[in-house]
Amino acid sequence: MTQYDATVRPDRRAELAAALGQVRSRIADACLAAGRDRSAVTMIAVTKTYPAGDVVALAGLGVTDVGENRDQEAAPKAAEVAAAGVAPRWHFIGQLQRNKCRSVVRYADVVHSVDSVRLAGALARAAAARDRPLEVLAQVSIDGDPARGGAVPDSADPDRGLGAVTGALAGSPGVRFAGLMAVAPLGWEPERAFARLAEVAAAVRRDHPGATALSAGMSADLEIAIRFGATHVRVGSALLGMRPTLR
Ligand SMILES: *Cc1c(COP(=O)(O)O)cnc(C)c1O
């Protein structure tokens, strides 16, 4: 018996183990089909709306990376998980307000959702207090509509243009610019969305060769994202179950 068993009921643990097995084989099959090494793709378990006990149980099943999208929920959950003696890598994947940066840098290892120069600056200032660099991805707006989040490729906008954001991240000590993140826009075929993202990522890597991470693909479209080069897939409902509210 491990220490984890106290925090989640055995039936929940079995449910998570079964779902995890299915998601892992989907990822393995997608890697095989794409001719990619399985070790090139990291699965992030998106645990938003689910309790710390589920995170601890997933960690006990070998999950190393966990994602959350709201600081109000993630900060206490990360503290509870740490108190249980478990230390996953925390990925902050949601829209981030500048006034939350100080909180997020206390527990996050990677922030996926930087989409403006102003946010990049606030995050870099907050991260300066850390003892190790924060990994940061620039979020890309695939359809070029900044209203839905994401920096805009091929835009000269000094705050929301992708080139300005990647330049700001690459030039900030205290953060490491690691790559790009995107969500397939509503109404777009995932193939078209992730093909476009792959083009954008190739262009960004010409200027920033170390920015190799590509966070794309969720429960419904992870195979397609892997085909187009995703290095991180963010999987929520396929692992943990349907969330009560869509977010
Ligand atoms: C919730 C969320 C996910 C996971 O979505 P599922 O469809 O439940 O797998 C992935 N990425 C982001 C940014 C999210 O907010």
Mean pLDDT: 95
What CATH calls the topology is TIM Barrel
CATH architectural label: Alpha-Beta Barrel
| Unreliably modeled segments | 1-6
Taken as a percent bin, the fraction of beta residues is: 15-25%
Figure out the total of helices.
9
The value of Rg in angstroms is: 17 Å
Name of the level-1 CATH class: Alpha Beta
Element order: H for helix, E for strand: HEHEHEHEHEHEHEHEH
Structural class: alpha/beta
Count of domains: 1
**Rough outline:** globular
Which kinds of small molecule does this entry bind, naming each only once?
pyridoxal-5'-phosphate
CATH H-level homologous superfamily name: Alanine racemase
Instruction: Give, in spatial order, the strands making up the sheet with the most strands.
Output: 7-6-5-4-3-2-1-8
Biggest β-sheet description: 8 strands, parallel
